[in-house]
Amino acid sequence: MSLTPPDNLGNPGTVPGKVTTQSLIDMKAEGRRISALTAYDYLMAQALDESGIDVILVGDSAAMVIQGRNTTVPVTMEQMLYHSQVVAKGVQRALVVGDLPFLSYQVNSDEALRNAGRMVKEALVEAVKVEGGRTIAPTVKRLVEVGIPVMGHLGLTPQSIHKFGTYRVRATEPDEAEQLRADALALQDAGAFAIVIEKVPAELATAIAAELEVPIIGIGAGGGCDGQILVSHDMLGLYTKFHPRFVRRYAELGQAMRDAFASYIKDVQDGQFPDENESY
Fold this sequence. Notes:
Elements: H1 21-30, E1 34-38, H2 42-51, E2 55-58, H3 62-65, H4 77-89, E3 95-99, H5 109-121, E4 127-129, H6 137-145, E5 150-155, H7 161-164, H8 174-190, E6 194-198, H9 202-211, E7 216-219, E8 227-230, H10 232-235, H11 253-270
Parallel strand pairs: 1-2, 1-8, 2-3, 3-4, 4-5, 5-6, 6-7, 7-8
Helix pairs in contact: 2-4, 5-6, 6-8
C-alpha cells in the first residue's frame, strides 16, 4: 500500500494526486501541459487549489500587485515569508513555489541557503524560485544538494529591471538568444526541476523546451512551452496599471468590485441597507 505525499500542513497521506516536482517532469514527458498562477493570500490560494491548478507561485510580484510598488525589487524576505506562509495554509494539492526576493540569494551561497531554508522550514513552500542563469547555477546546485528544489527564471527577469531599463522582449538578437539557451542548460545541469522563461520570442522558447528535459514554463514566450504562468491579478483584471499583450483577461473583477462598492455606498446612503431581513 502506498501513501500520497504529505500536504502543506504536514498531514501525511491525505491528498490524492498531490503535485510534486517529479510530477511536473512526468507531465512534460507525457506531453501534458502545466498550469501555474500566482497567489499571495489564503483565499486566493484556496480557490486556485480547488480549481485544479498545478503550480502556485508566491511571486515577488506581490511588491506590485499587493504593495503598489513600481517594480518587484523592494519586496523583502520577511514579506515573502509572510505571503508564503498564508498561501501554503490554503493549499493541499498544488505545488507551492516561493520566490526568493532580490538580494536574498545573490550575495553568496551561504545566505541563499539560509533564506531558501527559511522558506521551506518556516513558510512550508515545497520549492523556491531564483532568477539568473550560469552565474547563479552554483548556488542552485548547492540548494538542490541539501534537498531544496529550485525553479529557475530566465529571459526578462524583473529583479534586474534597473539593469535592463525596459520591459521589452529579451533575446531577440542571436548572441543573447544563445546566452539564454546556455543559461537554461546550466540551470538544468545544476539540478533545477523547472525553468520559467519570460518575454522571449516564441520560436526560441519552443526550441529550448524541446532541447531540455525539465519543464519550461512560459510567460509571454508563446505556446510551445511545457506550461504557462500568469500573475493572477493580471488575468482577473484586478491589476490594471498596464496590460501586456501576453496577458489574457479571463475576467474583469476590478470593475466588478468597483460596481459592487458603488452599489453598497448608494444603498447605505439611501437607507436601503440593511433591511429587516438583514437586521436582528
